[in-house]
Amino acid sequence: MKKEEGLYMVTTIISGKVKERRKSRLMRRPSKRGGRIRGNSSERKIEGNREYAVLQLTRTLNCNMKANDVWLTLTFSDEALTACGGTFEDAKAEAKKFVDRVVYRRKKQGVVTKWVIAPSEIDGETGELVRPHVHVIMNGEGFSFADGVLRLFDEDVEKIWGKGSVDVQFLRHQDDYYPLAKYIISQSRNVPDEKKYSVSRNMEKPVVRREIVHSGAQLRLPTGATELPGTKYDPEKGQNIVRYVPRKKNPARQVGGHKEMTLSKLGEEGDDDGL
């Protein structure tokens, strides 16, 4: 087999405890592309955009969310949906107003709010059209659940919403929120170029590093790392991606010697990121 030659970009993205490494070939000359028409996307492109949105949302959640944060699903009564206009865009606007009310109440209590808003009118399993509803993910300070009632401090959250019901799930500790992100994005509309979700401006962003290499070889998992969903290798599609949680450093291990000292300074926890 002829050896691959050329230059490749390896991008490392660190979000929380998760590392994602992607390798792509660098073209020697820029390719000529025709003018792009907004909304003119093939099914393959739409699916690619959806997969990318899952990874983007995962990174945001991994950087900002933790155990006991809340995942709210806002639903509308018939009357409320009709009163606000009844469309997908109307539902999204009402959800933003709800989030603004929550942010205002928490700010008065000295709590900073981080949020994600993801509107939906699609059944993620069947792809069928359903009643508009909105997913909201927030940091959990101030929320409590008792006697079947979700409260923000001393207020009933359904009364703050005022448009219907509020279903809540408290997040568990997870190193990787990929499953949640995939579920949320699976319910987004198949509208080309439409933004799948929105986030507050105070969200922490993942750390991104790039390096140029000469090898087109498949990326491999470091020794002892835990492989995560989203890892793919398909040369025909240009996919060379690994997602993983690095092995934990043994606290009893003594740092000594050139290699151990170098790894300690780099903060790689003994992580062998081979190409």
Structure notes:
- The protein has helices at residues 43-64, 78-84, 88-108, 157-161, 178-186, 257-266; strands spanning 8-15, 18-25, 70-74, 115-122, 129-138, 143-146, 149-152, 155-156, 166-170, 198-199, 207-213, 226-227, 232-234, 239-245.
- The chain is an alpha+beta fold and 275 residues long.
- The protein has a domain at 43-199: Alpha-Beta Plaits.
- Strands 1, 2, 11, 12, 13 and 14 form a 6-stranded antiparallel β-sheet that branches. Strands 9-3-5-4-10 form a 5-stranded antiparallel β-sheet, sandwiched between helices. A 3-stranded antiparallel β-sheet has the order 6-7-8.
- Helix 1 crosses helix 5.
- The longest helix is centred in the N-terminal third of the chain and has 22 residues, at 43-64.
